[in-house]
Specification:
By secondary structure, the protein is of the alpha+beta class. It has a domain at 74-193. It contains 4 helices and 10 strands, in the order αββαββαββββββα. It has helices at 5-37, 74-89, 115-119, 190-193, and strands at residues 39-41, 44-46, 92-94, 106-113, 126-132, 135-139, 148-153, 157-163, 169-176, 181-183. The strands form 3 sheets. The chain has a 4-stranded antiparallel sheet. Strands 7-8-9-10 form a 4-stranded antiparallel sheet, with no helix packed on it. Strands 1-2 form a two-stranded antiparallel ribbon. Strand 8 and strand 9 form a beta hairpin. The termini are far apart.
Length: 195
């Protein structure tokens, strides 16, 4: 009978080497899988390969929608149209009828001098026409202003911005006290407003 001693040990050695190789491959695979999944260390993503960090965008807050104003009634629309017509009779064209807020006591319309009034010598520019209810009260100034815009409106006040130069403007608040309209500061003189 023949002994299988040296042959068995060679087979055993090869089997052990094969098993060791299998464990080595399994260990490398496990390391690669762990690296691909990423390990969290000190708040940074750690991967097998060095990757450029991509900054996380802060989510922007959802803006609060402005409430939709109630549609104007037929009476309010008629008042606004009448105010626009009165402004046209003065030789000015309303810039936008939307500036006329019929729910407020003091109302305003910005208007530009019409082509006809400019042909008759009225300087080009804007004026603010004030109304209380559906009654015309007065304009902001006798002469138009080159640059004029509405800054703010409340129940009884309107703030206007007069452009004086390219970088400078003066704000004047007009207040209705129940019987008269009064500017809370002086309206700039015509030479400053007409550029």
């Amino acid at each position: 009978m023949r002994t299988r001693g040296p042959r068995l040990s060679l087979e055993r050695a090869l089997a052990l080497l094969g098993l060791l190789g299998l464990f080595l491959v399994a260990g490398v695979c496990a390391t690669m899988i762990a690296g691909a999944a990423g390990e969290q260390k000190n708040g940074e993503l750690k991967t097998g390969a060095t990757a450029a960090a991509t900054p996380t965008r802060e989510p922007e807050p959802t803006p609060t929608p402005k409430p939709t104003p109630a549609p104007l009634t037929q009476q309010e629309l008629a008042q606004r149209r009448a105010a626009g017509q009165l402004v046209r009779q003065q030789g000015f064209d309303p810039v936008s009828l939307k500036a006329y807020h019929p729910e407020q006591t003091l109302r305003v319309l910005l208007a530009e001098s019409s082509a006809t009034s400019r042909a008759n010598g009225v300087p080009a520019g804007r004026r603010a026409f004030f109304f209380v209810g559906d009654s015309f009260i007065e304009a902001d100034a006798p002469e138009p202003s080159s640059k004029l815009r509405i800054v703010r409106q409340t129940e009884n006040t309107v703030t206007l911005a007069y452009g004086l130069t390219a970088e400078e403007e003066t704000r004047v608040r007009f207040r209705w006290d129940g019987s008269a309209l009064a500017p809370q500061s002086p309206v700039p003189p015509a030479p400053q407003r007409l550029q």
